[in-house]
Amino acid sequence: MRKLLLALLLPACGHIPDYGQIYRAADEWRELTDGRCHPVIGQNVTLRESSQWDCKRAFGRGCLGWHRKNTIGIALDAIRSDKVLHHVALHEFGHWCGLKHSIDPSSVMYPGGDSAVQRPTKEDIEAFFATDERTLIEKSMRQLGVHL
What we know:
Collagenase (Catalytic Domain); 9% strand
């Protein structure tokens, strides 16, 4: 069944996504934030194999990834390389960690950014640590199912 789903989502070029890129992106955020942002696929975050059509329906435009609450979607039908997949995963996990879009094109949080950006910038990490402490505590509590 999974092979059939992948076959339907594969782009015309036939690129088979390396899911390790997604897990590495999650690990990078954990390392760079001293464990304060710790996305774990299958535990506190759900990874949804998505498509550009999902983005068009949800946002009225095409996109490569999206984030809603504890779900991250990646449009596998539009991903053309593992480098792009890694960049999109970093960007979406950045949202999961509480970051908003950046106006800096060298930031992984820049919308529609350059896939050459393969690591969060110093400013991305500083923005994470500048996030209100109460917001982080509330997010962690919600993830554990505790509502304040």
